[in-house]
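Exercise 7. Predict the structure of UDP-glycosyltransferase from Tamlana crocina.
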Amino acid sequence: MNNKKVFIFFPDGVGLRNFAFTDFKIIGEQMGFDITYWNNTIFSLQDNLGFQEVKIEDHSAHPLLPVYSRARKRAELNVSRDKFNDSVYPTYKFPFNYKGLKNIFKSLYVKWLVGLHSSEKGGEKLRSKINQLERSTSKYKYCKAQLEEHKPDLIFCTTQRATQSISALLAAKDLGIPTVAFVYSWDNVPKAMQVVETDYYCVWSDLMKQQVLQYYPFVKPEQVFVTGTPQFEPHYNENLKQSREGFFKEYNLDINKKYICFSGDDITTSPLDQFYLEDLANAVRNLNSKGYNLGVIYRKCPVDFTDRYNAVIEKNKDIIAVLDPIWKQVGSQWNQVLPTSEDFKMLYNVCEHSEFVTNVCSSTVFDFVAHNKPCIYFNYEQPQLKKGIRDIGQNYKYVHFRSMPSKNAVVFCTDKNDLEGLVQQILDGTLSNVEECKTWYEIVVGKTPTEASKNIWKTIDSILN
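Solution. The predicted structure, encoded as tokens:
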């Protein structure tokens, strides 16, 4: 038994899904770790889950942090653009805001900083400046005092991309406490979303390790551990599985129908997403007139608060069943919409009891392939596209899609007129991307998707020993 004290640090709510609602804590305790959740969110782990927690009540950040963070990201993307001679990197940038004097000043200041720091040395200077600013905050002192009181042996940060974590991790480093960051999502590294600098990093796969070393030369190979991600572990937990009859009864689905899942996107990624849902509903209606008996399960993106799908759903209520993710909104920000453990069960059974999934470039392709189910990616323009609306085709040019072993890793629908035929072929068993997609899944998620939690704890154990 090692009884080492580990703080699991939640700078925001995105890590809850991986590290509070999976078996991550149970596995760590079985290995003898003394686990406390260091909680910067407004979700109480103690009240809701009975977990031992230390709450961070001081949420102050330096007023210049947003400006310098934005400059750091843009400067890093400029470095990648020049280093790899690749025009994809500027497409990761959000446009400047020039509405109002305050925003004009901020945007001009960011531009000035980016102009001075668009080199690897410049990026390091910006990171040093951010650290200097955050060390001056009351939150830094507050977190340092908490760490001095509780004396953890290691801090495990559940995401590398939250600016809220910087001051807390600096306090740990300044006290000589080892820090580890988990790289949260499959697309994060090329998008310059590594906000924190820790002693070690846990990543999903060999691909992600190679990317961390490629984009961040100051990180050494021995600092990066390939562990996998707990994100997909629930798909292998058969205790979550409901019978088809039980699942259909719980969500008022028609037992005689076969359902296709439409997985919704956020408005940034797919601003015209509702029209792809409409296209699928039309394809299903046409196939039903030819003797099929199909429906659509619409599962929205948990952080989409728009009403843009409502008209399509109302018009097709005989076909579309709405199964909203079981997430709770505990604040006004996108990262304050938090998953629940019940949603794991719902998602497992949506994957298990749907024929396949359709969406725009979502990682749900991997959720479904874990259940041996195909995926159609929409990849055609909608006629409603006009200036100022983002074309979804841009998404497929992003670096993380270059990990596809072949174009057959998904079924691409590149023409609205082909959709009905593709749906029919998948249903008839003459078209599938599952085998190719399993190769892609291994490249992105790693070779041991069921072992990620265990691998992370083994990594923590090896660091401490």
